[in-house]
Amino acid sequence: MIITTTENIPGRNYEIIGLVNGNNIQSKNAFRDFTQGIRNFTGGELKAYTDMMIKSRNVATERMVEEANRLGADAIIMVRYNTSSIVENSSEVHCYGTAVKFI
Description:
The protein has helices spanning 30-42, 47-70; strands spanning 2-3, 14-27, 75-84, 90-102. The protein is of the alpha+beta class. The chain has one domain (2-102): 2-Layer Sandwich (Translation Initiation Factor IF3). A four-stranded mixed β-sheet has the order 1-3-4-2.
């Protein structure tokens, strides 16, 4: 599966299948929230949160690819990511793009 943020894949012709999505909502646990709160006072990267968001982005991407595979897609173009807060102490990563089939 080719995944790209570009509109075109050089040297390939394709037909559009449609929009595909994947999302993941992660929440913080109390221990992680406490230790990261301390980091806010001392400065520096909030590594536990960074790791949480990387994992969440990977899960969202996998879910988008699964949807594209179910539709018989060969690639996903124009891929974008959004993040948002759903409820207190949680974050959503939404991944979407256009599934295409090579012709």
